[in-house]
Amino acid sequence: MTFSSTLLENAVEEFAKLPGIGRKTALRLVLYLLKRDSGEVHLFSETMVKLRDEIHFCSECHNISDEPICHICSDRARKHDLICVVETIRDVIAIESTQQYHGVYHVLGGVISPLDGIGPEQLQIDSLIGRVQQGQTLELLFALSPNIQGDTTLFYISKKLQNLPVKITTIARGIAFGGELEYADELTLARSISNRMPVENYLGNQIQP
To answer: Which domain holds residue 139?
Structure first.
């Protein structure tokens, strides 16, 4: 792809660094911005810079927030003795959109995946265990994507918590094994949360031939 402008080429290269954006799509986005009013483009760039510089990660659940404590963790109407453990911030957004869950969250920041070089120490597992050790948590609801990595993470954490007085459940598998949680439709996800099961039942079913 040959460009008539170095500025145009540099802008395309930056957009192409975004996930799922190829050079052709990047070029289309850049040309779209060039057609917009200068004030709109400045607002766009300022919004992105402000997002990067001022965003917080909740000190309790690790969700993104405008404040040190996110609005979910600071909401007294939520069930703070019920923690939903998810892989990413996108999963929080997906579950919140169902309007069927009224507890709080814990974002792990990924799942255990040795092939990708991701071990427990790279995830927010210790902080989760610390929250449970405070003694105020009655139930941990695991809403991890139903795949090998998700199940490995679920098994690892449940073993770490086996001596603590907390109920451990997982969402019902209305979601196909190998699927991604964030792409599940809202009805399926809502039913999976409502019909959650004890984690020992789920792990036992997975181990059986």
So the answer is: 78-207
For the question of whether the overall pTM of this predicted structure is more than 0.70, the answer is yes
Is residue 38 in a domain? yes
Cα distances (angstroms) measured from residue 125 to each of 9, 111, 112, 163: 42, 10, 10, 16
Find, among 95, 157, 72, 85, the residue nearest to 120 by Cα.
157
Per-residue pLDDT tens digits for 114-134: 999 999 999 999 999 999 999
Residue 52 CA to residue 58 CA, distance in Å, equals 15
Residue 186: pLDDT band (50, 70, 90) is: confident
Name 27's Cβ contacts closer than 8 Å, sequence gap at least 6.
1, 12
CATH number of the domain that residue 38 is part of? 1.10.8.420
